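[audit] Reproducing an earlier prediction to check determinism. Same input, same settings, fresh worker. If the tokens differ from the archived copy the diff job will pick it up downstream; this log only records the rerun itself.
[audit] input (175 residues):
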Amino acid sequence: MIGPVVDGAGYDLEDLSVSRAGRRHVVRVIVDADGGINLDAVADVSRAVSAALDAAEETGGDIVAGEYQLEVSSPGVDRPLTLPRHWRRNVGRLVRVTVRGAAESGTGPAGDRQVTGRVTAADDERVLLEIDGERAEWSYTELGPGRVQVEFSRLDELPESEDVDDDDDVEDEER
């Protein structure tokens, strides 16, 4: 019931869970879209899902009987990349992934190895990673779940900006 509501709003339902918290249920809905999802979209989806849950309860549906708390969010950076759309949405990001059956002898269980590289392209069949300046391509069946690696820009990579007088920002602050 929630899937069609999310699809109708133009987003992908990434995860749905219902758990019990005391006398009420907690309904967690994770949605995403190409180009990401902003807070306004999360609010729109939340209203639509809430209306659908309320309507289902009024018509005798036993989806979530009684009180519930609805939590709608976008996937976090820790979400594993398992579907082609996950990889496509992370083009340009650094990822770590297990390549199955690709290790040199003696370097990992069952021939698997971990690689870290930047996603340069992804389609419905394959992903292209740049690893240490070289490109490698794998089908999704050759890969385990990928994980986005958090990167912090180095100061020398940031664009130059005008000097800022920090004293203006700390008025009345003890030093």
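[audit] rerun output stored. Observation attached for the diff report: The chain has two domains: 2-73, 84-151.
[audit] end
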